[in-house]
User: What shape does this take?
Amino acid sequence: MRIGILGGTGNMGGGLALRFSLMHEVTVGSRSVEKADESARALGAKAAGFYGSAMRGSIKGALNEDAVENRDIIIETLPASAAITTLTAIRDRFSYRQIVVSCVVPMKRKGKLYTWSPIVAGGCDEARSAAELIRDAVTPVRVVSAFQTIPADYLNDLEAVLDLDVLVAGDDETAVESVMGLARDIPGLRPLRVGPLENSKWVESLTPLLLNAAILNHLHDPSIRIVPWSP
Ligand SMILES: NC(=O)c1ccc[n+]([C@@H]2O[C@H](COP(=O)([O-])OP(=O)(O)OC[C@H]3O[C@@H](n4cnc5c(N)ncnc54)[C@H](OP(=O)(O)O)[C@@H]3O)[C@@H](O)[C@H]2O)c1
Assistant: This one.
């Protein structure tokens, strides 16, 4: 698959690029083409050093707007504050066949803890998820919400053995299935459907909850796995 990552020079985007480059053609997007190229070179070297001859994909750099064109899947790993404005500015580069994956978590610090802090947009009173606002910005492109609870540090550590769930929310079954397939391409990640895109708000709000659990209980980078009861 051809994957573009908006904000791909960051922690989360870089981690996903490293993992997906084993099998896929990845373009890391940035506001600066020089930064994108430099980041792609460093990530590509790290991936090639780890995967060796098993590496079937690649990593290159581009401006965010160019990282969208001719991609099958566009992953958004931008800060919440820039997520909608960036997409709105480049929306004419999208094609309706593509799938956008939102990893965005809108949250803010409140004292020593974190809280979910929905992006305020469009004069809407109701708190809506970042993924729904992203959908509104790129309609009719299909949007799926995923990867919010996977810490970037785990992805960036290629030696790390993952045993985690990826909660996937979306309205289009074909798009959800594609993103679940993508998640399965990272060993140790188990994708789980959690319903329509509007449920993304529950997934997004898990991240500040996990961070608070880490702060209050002295844990490092907690993630989640849903465990069935088996007496
Ligand atoms: N870090 C994690 O563990 C993690 C896990 C799950 C989900 N997420 C989510 O993934 C997203 C990215 O997180 P991150 O930790 O990777 O963030 P980050 O490293 O701070 O930022 C990602 C990239 O966004 C671009 N950027 C920053 N400010 C921008 C602006 N004002 N306008 C346009 N682009 C801007 C930068 O790229 P350029 O300077 O190259 O343009 C930066 O490299 C967030 O929404 C976060 O909630 C993070």
Summary: The chain has one domain: 2-217. The pocket of NAP is lined by residues 7, 9-13, 30-32, 35, 77-80, 82, 86, 103-105, 147-148, 150-152 (CB under 6 Å). The mean pLDDT is 95. The two ends are 41 Å apart (CA to CA).
